[in-house]
Amino acid sequence: MRFVAVGVVNSAFGFGLFALLQLTLGHVVHYLVILTVAQVVSILEAYVLQRWLVFRVRGRWWRELVRFSSVYAVSFAINLVVLPLLVEVAHLPVLLSQAMVMVGTALGSFVAHRSFTFRRPAVATDVPGSPAPGGDS
Predict the structure, then answer these.
(1) TM spans, by residue (predicted)?
(2) pTM of the entire structure?
(3) Which range of residues forms the domain containing residue 71?
(4) How many helices (H) and strands (E) does the chain have?
(5) Which of 38, 65, 93, 101 fits a disulfide with 17 by CB distance 3.0 to 4.6 angstroms?
């Protein structure tokens, strides 16, 4: 549930920033440049909220930021391909196209963050052949 709540906030922030930039600067700046700026800012915002509220981890922030960014680099690459296809080939509006791409990548980012970015090694509780805690061997 925390991921869903933070995901909604992250998505609203990222799309809101993209929409704001597109509506204010879209007549002078290409939408892929706007996408790039919005993506960088949104990745930093999303990292802070997911680390703090969703996965509740401490330490190793620099390593996790690199992993986190790499997950979004894949998402960004997909976005850079699909967004122009929807806008230039399918002739859909930029904001509608971006909303469609964003919805399509949200679930994949959660799975990647859970299994890659914020993954912690499992703690062995009962290893066969090892002495029991406090017992004699």
Answers:
(1) 7-25, 31-53, 65-86, 92-112
(2) 0.75
(3) 2-117
(4) 4, 0
(5) 38
